[in-house]
Amino acid sequence: MAIQVTCPNCLKRFQVSDKFAGKTGPCPNCKKEIKVPDASEEVVIHAPDDGAPKDRQGVSILKPLKRTETDVTRKGMIITFGAILLAVAAAVGLRMGMEIIPVYILAMGALFLAPPLVWSGYSFVRDSELEPHVGPDLRNRVLILSVILAALWLVYAFVPSYVMEYDSPAEMSYLWFGIIFAVMVGLGALASAATFDLEPLNGLTLAGLYFIVAVVLALISGLTLATNV
Fold first, then answer.
1. What does the pLDDT read at residue 142?
2. 140-192, pLDDT tens digit by residue?
3. CB 163 within 8 A of CB 155
4. Angle 78-84-85 (CA atoms, 0-180°, nearest 5)?
5. Which residues contact 140 (CB under 8 A, 6 or more apart)?
6. Distance (Å, rounded) from C-alpha 158 to C-alpha 105?
7. Which pLDDT score is estimated for 40?
8. What is the pLDDT of residue 11?
9. Buried (b) or exposed (e) across 200-210, using 16+ Cβ within 10 A?
10. CA 161/CA 164 separation, integer angstroms
11. Beta strands per DSSP E along 77-226
Protein backbone atom coordinates (compact mmCIF):
# COMPACT_ATOMS: atom_id res chain seq x y z
CA MET A 1 0.00 0.00 0.00
CA ALA A 2 1.43 3.38 -0.99
CA ILE A 3 1.77 6.31 1.41
CA GLN A 4 1.04 9.84 0.29
CA VAL A 5 3.96 12.16 1.15
CA THR A 6 4.23 15.95 0.82
CA CYS A 7 7.69 17.48 1.05
CA PRO A 8 7.61 20.35 3.61
CA ASN A 9 10.35 22.19 1.69
CA CYS A 10 9.23 22.17 -1.96
CA LEU A 11 5.63 21.00 -1.34
CA LYS A 12 6.05 18.28 -3.96
CA ARG A 13 3.54 15.44 -3.52
CA PHE A 14 4.48 11.82 -4.28
CA GLN A 15 3.88 8.26 -3.14
CA VAL A 16 6.26 5.82 -1.45
CA SER A 17 5.88 2.20 -0.43
CA ASP A 18 4.56 1.54 3.06
CA LYS A 19 7.80 -0.32 3.87
CA PHE A 20 9.43 3.12 4.23
CA ALA A 21 6.88 4.24 6.84
CA GLY A 22 8.56 6.22 9.63
CA LYS A 23 11.91 6.39 7.80
CA THR A 24 13.79 9.40 6.44
CA GLY A 25 15.16 9.90 2.98
CA PRO A 26 15.82 12.51 0.27
CA CYS A 27 12.94 14.22 -1.50
CA PRO A 28 13.01 13.14 -5.17
CA ASN A 29 12.45 16.75 -6.20
CA CYS A 30 14.56 19.00 -3.93
CA LYS A 31 16.82 16.24 -2.48
CA LYS A 32 16.35 17.50 1.09
CA GLU A 33 15.83 15.00 3.88
CA ILE A 34 12.20 14.34 4.79
CA LYS A 35 10.46 11.83 7.02
CA VAL A 36 7.88 9.46 5.66
CA PRO A 37 4.87 9.38 8.00
CA ASP A 38 4.07 6.05 9.66
CA ALA A 39 0.65 4.42 9.90
CA SER A 40 -0.21 6.21 13.15
CA GLU A 41 0.17 9.59 11.43
CA GLU A 42 -2.03 8.70 8.44
CA VAL A 43 -5.19 10.77 8.14
CA VAL A 44 -8.22 8.89 6.82
CA ILE A 45 -11.22 10.87 5.60
CA HIS A 46 -14.49 8.96 5.70
CA ALA A 47 -17.44 9.79 3.52
CA PRO A 48 -20.52 10.92 5.45
CA ASP A 49 -23.04 8.22 6.23
CA ASP A 50 -25.88 8.36 3.72
CA GLY A 51 -28.21 6.32 5.92
CA ALA A 52 -28.56 3.55 3.31
CA PRO A 53 -28.37 -0.15 4.33
CA LYS A 54 -24.85 -1.60 4.07
CA ASP A 55 -23.34 -5.03 3.45
CA ARG A 56 -20.68 -6.65 5.65
CA GLN A 57 -17.95 -4.52 4.09
CA GLY A 58 -19.89 -1.33 4.81
CA VAL A 59 -20.76 -0.73 1.16
CA SER A 60 -24.22 0.54 0.35
CA ILE A 61 -26.44 -2.13 -1.21
CA LEU A 62 -28.60 0.47 -2.95
CA LYS A 63 -27.83 1.12 -6.60
CA PRO A 64 -28.23 4.66 -7.95
CA LEU A 65 -31.03 5.20 -10.39
CA LYS A 66 -29.79 5.97 -13.89
CA ARG A 67 -31.73 8.47 -15.91
CA THR A 68 -32.58 7.35 -19.42
CA GLU A 69 -32.49 10.21 -21.91
CA THR A 70 -35.49 10.30 -24.20
CA ASP A 71 -34.91 11.65 -27.69
CA VAL A 72 -38.19 13.05 -29.00
CA THR A 73 -36.58 15.54 -31.34
CA ARG A 74 -36.02 13.29 -34.36
CA LYS A 75 -39.56 11.92 -34.44
CA GLY A 76 -40.98 15.37 -33.84
CA MET A 77 -38.91 16.86 -36.65
CA ILE A 78 -40.04 14.22 -39.15
CA ILE A 79 -43.68 14.64 -38.22
CA THR A 80 -43.43 18.43 -38.28
CA PHE A 81 -41.71 18.76 -41.65
CA GLY A 82 -44.09 16.24 -43.18
CA ALA A 83 -47.12 18.08 -41.85
CA ILE A 84 -45.80 21.48 -42.94
CA LEU A 85 -45.09 20.21 -46.46
CA LEU A 86 -48.61 18.85 -46.70
CA ALA A 87 -49.99 22.10 -45.30
CA VAL A 88 -48.00 24.20 -47.81
CA ALA A 89 -49.21 22.00 -50.67
CA ALA A 90 -52.78 22.35 -49.42
CA ALA A 91 -52.40 26.13 -49.09
CA VAL A 92 -51.10 26.43 -52.65
CA GLY A 93 -53.94 24.23 -53.87
CA LEU A 94 -56.51 26.40 -52.10
CA ARG A 95 -55.01 29.54 -53.60
CA MET A 96 -55.18 28.10 -57.09
CA GLY A 97 -58.55 26.39 -56.82
CA MET A 98 -60.74 28.63 -54.62
CA GLU A 99 -61.46 32.31 -54.50
CA ILE A 100 -63.25 32.07 -51.17
CA ILE A 101 -62.06 29.46 -48.68
CA PRO A 102 -64.90 27.93 -46.61
CA VAL A 103 -64.75 28.38 -42.86
CA TYR A 104 -64.82 24.65 -42.19
CA ILE A 105 -61.64 24.19 -44.26
CA LEU A 106 -59.89 26.91 -42.28
CA ALA A 107 -60.96 25.26 -39.02
CA MET A 108 -59.74 21.85 -40.18
CA GLY A 109 -56.43 23.36 -41.28
CA ALA A 110 -55.88 25.11 -37.95
CA LEU A 111 -56.58 21.89 -36.08
CA PHE A 112 -54.56 19.66 -38.41
CA LEU A 113 -51.49 21.89 -38.19
CA ALA A 114 -51.41 22.08 -34.39
CA PRO A 115 -50.37 18.53 -33.26
CA PRO A 116 -47.11 18.21 -35.25
CA LEU A 117 -46.06 21.75 -34.37
CA VAL A 118 -46.85 21.23 -30.69
CA TRP A 119 -45.05 17.88 -30.68
CA SER A 120 -41.86 19.19 -32.28
CA GLY A 121 -42.00 22.49 -30.41
CA TYR A 122 -42.13 20.68 -27.09
CA SER A 123 -39.02 18.66 -28.00
CA PHE A 124 -37.12 21.95 -28.36
CA VAL A 125 -38.46 24.00 -25.46
CA ARG A 126 -38.78 21.34 -22.75
CA ASP A 127 -36.52 21.58 -19.70
CA SER A 128 -33.67 19.13 -20.30
CA GLU A 129 -33.18 18.79 -16.53
CA LEU A 130 -36.63 17.21 -16.16
CA GLU A 131 -37.95 13.91 -17.41
CA PRO A 132 -39.87 14.54 -20.65
CA HIS A 133 -43.49 13.58 -21.16
CA VAL A 134 -43.61 10.43 -23.27
CA GLY A 135 -46.05 7.84 -24.54
CA PRO A 136 -49.78 8.27 -23.94
CA ASP A 137 -49.12 11.14 -21.54
CA LEU A 138 -47.31 13.11 -24.26
CA ARG A 139 -49.98 12.27 -26.82
CA ASN A 140 -52.80 13.45 -24.57
CA ARG A 141 -51.05 16.71 -23.72
CA VAL A 142 -50.30 17.36 -27.41
CA LEU A 143 -53.95 16.81 -28.34
CA ILE A 144 -55.25 18.99 -25.50
CA LEU A 145 -52.97 21.90 -26.35
CA SER A 146 -53.66 21.48 -30.08
CA VAL A 147 -57.39 21.90 -29.52
CA ILE A 148 -56.80 24.94 -27.30
CA LEU A 149 -54.48 26.66 -29.81
CA ALA A 150 -56.82 25.97 -32.73
CA ALA A 151 -59.78 27.26 -30.69
CA LEU A 152 -57.94 30.53 -30.01
CA TRP A 153 -58.60 31.50 -33.63
CA LEU A 154 -62.13 32.19 -32.41
CA VAL A 155 -60.67 35.32 -30.82
CA TYR A 156 -59.69 36.50 -34.30
CA ALA A 157 -63.01 35.40 -35.80
CA PHE A 158 -65.40 37.03 -33.31
CA VAL A 159 -63.69 39.86 -31.40
CA PRO A 160 -63.50 42.24 -34.41
CA SER A 161 -67.17 41.64 -35.20
CA TYR A 162 -68.40 42.29 -31.66
CA VAL A 163 -65.94 44.95 -30.48
CA MET A 164 -65.31 46.90 -33.70
CA GLU A 165 -68.51 45.92 -35.56
CA TYR A 166 -66.73 44.68 -38.67
CA ASP A 167 -68.63 42.45 -41.06
CA SER A 168 -65.50 40.34 -41.50
CA PRO A 169 -62.27 40.03 -39.49
CA ALA A 170 -60.34 40.81 -42.70
CA GLU A 171 -61.70 44.38 -42.58
CA MET A 172 -59.67 45.30 -39.48
CA SER A 173 -56.39 47.18 -39.78
CA TYR A 174 -52.99 45.62 -39.39
CA LEU A 175 -52.67 47.42 -36.07
CA TRP A 176 -55.76 45.75 -34.67
CA PHE A 177 -54.68 42.44 -36.13
CA GLY A 178 -51.34 42.78 -34.36
CA ILE A 179 -53.10 43.47 -31.06
CA ILE A 180 -55.46 40.52 -31.42
CA PHE A 181 -52.63 38.28 -32.59
CA ALA A 182 -50.59 39.24 -29.51
CA VAL A 183 -53.56 38.36 -27.28
CA MET A 184 -53.90 34.98 -29.00
CA VAL A 185 -50.19 34.22 -28.59
CA GLY A 186 -50.31 35.31 -24.94
CA LEU A 187 -53.26 33.04 -24.17
CA GLY A 188 -51.55 30.24 -26.09
CA ALA A 189 -48.37 30.75 -24.06
CA LEU A 190 -50.32 30.36 -20.80
CA ALA A 191 -52.00 27.22 -22.11
CA SER A 192 -48.67 25.79 -23.32
CA ALA A 193 -46.91 26.43 -20.02
CA ALA A 194 -49.77 24.87 -18.04
CA THR A 195 -50.14 21.84 -20.31
CA PHE A 196 -46.45 20.89 -20.46
CA ASP A 197 -45.19 22.39 -17.16
CA LEU A 198 -42.98 24.84 -19.02
CA GLU A 199 -41.38 28.13 -18.07
CA PRO A 200 -43.37 31.17 -19.33
CA LEU A 201 -40.80 32.01 -22.03
CA ASN A 202 -40.78 28.43 -23.30
CA GLY A 203 -44.57 28.41 -23.36
CA LEU A 204 -44.48 31.63 -25.40
CA THR A 205 -42.03 30.05 -27.86
CA LEU A 206 -44.22 26.99 -28.29
CA ALA A 207 -47.40 29.00 -28.90
CA GLY A 208 -45.61 31.50 -31.13
CA LEU A 209 -44.30 28.69 -33.34
CA TYR A 210 -47.83 27.48 -34.04
CA PHE A 211 -49.40 30.87 -34.69
CA ILE A 212 -46.58 32.19 -36.87
CA VAL A 213 -46.60 29.08 -39.09
CA ALA A 214 -50.41 29.26 -39.26
CA VAL A 215 -50.32 32.91 -40.39
CA VAL A 216 -47.66 32.20 -43.03
CA LEU A 217 -49.72 29.33 -44.44
CA ALA A 218 -52.84 31.49 -44.43
CA LEU A 219 -51.03 34.12 -46.49
CA ILE A 220 -49.73 31.47 -48.90
CA SER A 221 -53.31 30.26 -49.44
CA GLY A 222 -54.33 33.81 -50.35
CA LEU A 223 -56.39 34.42 -47.23
CA THR A 224 -56.75 38.10 -46.26
CA LEU A 225 -56.22 38.50 -42.52
CA ALA A 226 -56.30 42.30 -42.29
CA THR A 227 -56.60 45.42 -44.45
CA ASN A 228 -54.12 48.23 -44.87
CA VAL A 229 -56.37 51.11 -43.81
1. 93
2. 999 999 999 999 999 988 888 788 778 888 888 888 899 999 999 999 999 99
3. no
4. 90
5. none
6. 17
7. 61
8. 84
9. eebbbbbbbbb
10. 6
11. none
